[in-house]
Every structure is written in structure tokens, then in C-alpha cells.
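Tutorial sheet, problem 5. The two components below are modelled jointly, 650 residues in total.
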Amino acid sequence: MNENLKHRIKARILKALHLVALFIAMAIICVPGLWIVLNSFRPTVEIMAKPPVWIPSELNLDNYRAMFGAVGEGGVPVVQYFTNSLIISVTSTVIAILVGMAGGYAFARYRFKGKAGIFIGLMLTRAVPGVSLSLPLFIVMAKTGLIDTHVGLILVYVALNVPFTIWLIDGFFRQVPIELAEAAEIDGCTRWQAFWKVEFPVARAGIASAGIFAFLTSWNEYALASQLTRSTFSKTMPVGLRDFTSEFTINWGGMCALAVLMIIPALILTFIVQKHLIAGLTFGGVKG
Amino acid sequence: MAQVQLRSVVKKYGSLEVVHGIDLDIADNEFVVLVGPSGCGKSTTLRMIAGLEAISGGEIAIGERVVNDLPPRHRNISMVFQNYALYPHMTVRENLGFSLKIANRPQSEIDRAVEEAANILSLSDYMDRKPGALSGGQRQRVAMGRAIVRHPEVFLFDEPLSNLDAKLRTQMRTEIKKLHQKVQSTIVYVTHDQVEAMTLADRIVIMRDGHIEQVGTPLEVFENPVNTFVATFIGSPPMNLLPATITNGEVAIENGPSVALPSAFEGKVREGQAVILGFRADNLMPRGHSLPMEGQHAAFDMKVNLSEPLGTETLLFSSLAGREVQAKMLNPRPVSPGETLPFQLDLTRCHLFDAASEASLR
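Model answer (C-alpha cells):
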């Protein structure tokens, strides 16, 4: 057989195997999500059936209808939870990004005393397991009266996210050549204008990705929120999932329906911001 | 009027002084090139003129104004950076018009100025592209366009050609020279490439270790270097330097032949003084392949170790007194390694430097 043909066949087989392997990996990753979506549309009998039913015999919106229905008939205050989640996540993300930008810029551009120490200190806070914070946080919040408030949870999430956003944004500002700001200053900008008109737009992709991470952390966080919230006034959606458990039963269908409502905004946000995540925005401005 | 004046300008980083009180007067419309090896303080000096580095002492004036503490935006200068520093998120048009937009000029004026700059630098075809979609030479031109749009009093260039390949570099060099003739303004240009310095400058400023070694027109610094550093830095190949002693009124090359004392140095050296004899490859040529040497000259034989044919001439590497010297051969013929040729040294073009201070004895 022709040697070239042999290599061509080999390359094609490898390519096919590659695709099959990718498909299997993706399937494993996606199955739990798909299972939740599927379960939200069918009755508990079918969800709990053994062996599992993969092809549903009947799909309906009963779980959604019940969830939005009256309390006592399986209803939960979805809209209130959703609003709480949104207020807490958006506010804490905005604050974390603003602080992250200021901090990241300072670490990337300025030299000051104890810089390395402060940076390592910030990173070390990331090494503390979140759950170990729950008791001290609970005591602090209880003493300051911030239990069961939006502000309390916002503070906690800002504290959790700031080291991470600083670290990420610092990295992106480091990639923006310092000459860009200098060129802007020579072109007539003040230091402040040079930042907002040149450095910020160039680093925008990185800041957007830091924003997504911060938002998803706050949006999905369960352990601390379950300690620090009590009532519908401040419960977030992940905590709201527990409303479907009662002493002897768990309403899996309802839980899945609420989980789907949680996933949707996160998905939409990721899609919107995705176009800002295109890498390589900083290429081309400098060097030949 | 936009002359630039530096008065005892000092730059310190903490306790480390990198520029040691330099004085420099740059006339209106003059093209001045700061040249020197890396770390000589030339870029720092330029950045101090630009206002990107604070000065630690002395005084800088642009026009009649002392600008020591003014931020860059109030100095009416523009600068072309080594890595171009184009704004990657803006099109070429926006890059060119950015400074005018910041100054809140009316759109019609911005359009006109951008169009004018684009025509001067033939950028009109790329106006809506982003810098990422341009070649190195095009980016270089956009960077220059951004500088000229504002009609500043002074242009500052920080090694603008060092990222280009050799051919493009020569081409852009010519364009910069033409640009200077067109826009008539003061230019301070930093480079480490002495060829760029020679070809572009009205006056060259040669710097070393934070000091100015010599200021002069390209021919002055080439013909009359004040010390051995300038002698070897300016001109290619570098000047040949041989240690020698003044003996019996002649220049006795260490372990080599003695040559007559060049008449230009009569009365300027004393018997027994240790000196350095300097001469360029252009003034050491094999007999029959040289320029006519009618004045004072010396003759001796040398073995050729290596030859580099350059077309119109051949560069010869030989040994004289145990040191490698470079010579030139006009109307070249092939030379085989090891061949011994009779050489002539034009003494009217030779230099003598003091061995201790390395300063010219002229």
C-alpha cells in the first residue's frame, strides 16, 4: 500500500477517535445538567423509577405550576428569592470589580512598600476553606445585626471575591503595555483619562471575565448563605432549594424546576459577556 | 519657536544617579540624535524632556518655558515609542485623531488633520483597520502620523526603527528625514545605531554612562572624535586603535613599526608620552588599491588574515603589532588568507589620543 495513504488513513482514524472521546467526555459533563432539566418536566414517580427512565413518557409543566402556586400547595416565593439573588450577586460583583480594578491596577503599575507581602496575604485568604468561615461569620453578623439582610451577604461575597478579582485583573493590566498610558498622556490625557480611555478598554476582556467569576460565585454560593439567611426577605435561590425538603419527603421535581430557573440567568450572562472574552485584544498595539 | 534647553539635568533613582547633570541646547527646527550604548541614559533623557520621568535636578525648557514640573500634556510635544504604543482597541483613524478628540476640537477639524497626516504618510488605505491588522512598517507610520497630527513644537523619537527589519529600517529612515523637511519642527531622536545617527542628524549627541561625551555635526564627530569612545562608537567599522609611545619625535607602535608624527599633532605631544594611535579602515589601504595619498603617509607590509568582499570594496582583517586592524581595499581583487600586502597609512587622517585619559590630543 502507498505509504502516504497509510498515514492519511491513520490520521483520519485518530481524528475520529479524538471526536468520540470528546463526545464521551462532554456527555459525562452534561448529563447531570440535562437530568435536572428533564426531571423538572416530569412527575416524581418517573424521577425515582429504578432502573432510571431516560426517555420520558410524559412531559408537563406541573412542577413549575406548583412552584409558582400558592404556599401550602408546593409553592415557594420564587420571585422573591430570584430578586434577592439578583440584588446580592449584582451588587457584590460590582463592588468586587471596582475594588479589584483599583487593587489590580495598583499591583500592576505601582511600586510600594510591602507590595509582595500584601499580595501573598490576599492570595492566602483564598486558601481558607469557605465553610470554616461560617461560624465566625455567623457570630460577627449576629452581633452586628446583619443576619438575614442583603447587606450582610453582600459584604461576605465581596470579601470572598475581592482577592480573586484583584489577582485576575492585576494579570490583565500587566499585559497592557505601560507605553499605552504614556502615549495617551502625551496625546493630552490626564492620568485618569489615560486609564479610562485607553487602559481600561484594552483590559476590558479580562475585567469582564473577572466579573463573570465573581457573579457566579455569589449566585451559586450555598453554604454561607444558608447560615446567614433566615426568611424570604434575604434567602437566595440556592438556599430556596431547601424549601422543597420536608420532614419525610423531598420534592425532587420542584427542586429541579427551581434549579433550572437558577441556571438560566447564569447561562444568559455568560453568553452576553462571551464576546468580550475574545482573547488577543491587546495584540497588535505594540511591536512588529 | 521651539528650542529645547537642558541645564545641568540630573536623574536619580534612589541613590543611583543615572544622568549626571547634562547640558544641551537644541535649536528650533533642529534634528538632534542622542546616541550611545544601552544604559547610557539617552532614553531617560528623552523621557525627562517628555515629562514621563521626573527630573531630579537642573532645568528643562521648551521654547521659552521651563517645563520641569509640567505633565506631558502641557508640554506641546509628541512622541513615537519603540514599540509604537498604538491603541489596540481603536482604528487607525481613531488612533490618529485621539489627541485632537481629547482636546475637544470640532469633528471637521479632526477629520481634516487626520486626512492630512494620512496623506503625508500614505495611510489612507488602512484608515478603518485596527493596529493588529497592520504590518510593522504600517504601524510605524501610524505612530508617526499620530505624532504629527497635533503639530507639536517638538517631536521625540525613542528608538522608533529598532523593531523593523533591515530593509524597512532604511526605508523608514528616509521617510523620517523627509518628514522632518515637510513638517519643519524640532526633533529629538534616540537610537543606539550610529548609522541612523549619522544619516538623520543635524547634530549628534554621543552619550556614555549618563554623561555627554561629544556634541557635533555627523562629520565633526566622525572626523574629530574627542576621545577613543567616540572614535570607536561612530563609524563602521570602528576606528583601529593601537597603543604607541612618542619616541625620537616619531610614533612608535608598541611591538610594531614606527611612523612619523602626523603634522597636526606637532607640539601637542611630548617625548616619551604614552599615546593611542587611531585610524579608520578607510585610511589604511594596500598600495595600488588605495586613494591617492599625497600628504604624509607611512608604508609597511601586513599579512591578511581574512577578507570580506562588499562589492565596491573589500574589508581586510590583518595583524599589526599583534593586534587586529581593519583595512579597506578599493577596486578589489580576490585576496587569499595569509597573503602579505604592502599597506599605506594616511597619516594626515590619523588621530592621537592620550593613553591615560583617552582624550584626543588634537
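Marking note: The interface with chain A takes residues 50-52, 71-73, 77-79, 81-89, 98-99, 102-103, 130-137, 139-140, 146, 150, 163-164 of chain B (CB under 8 Å). Full credit if you identified this.
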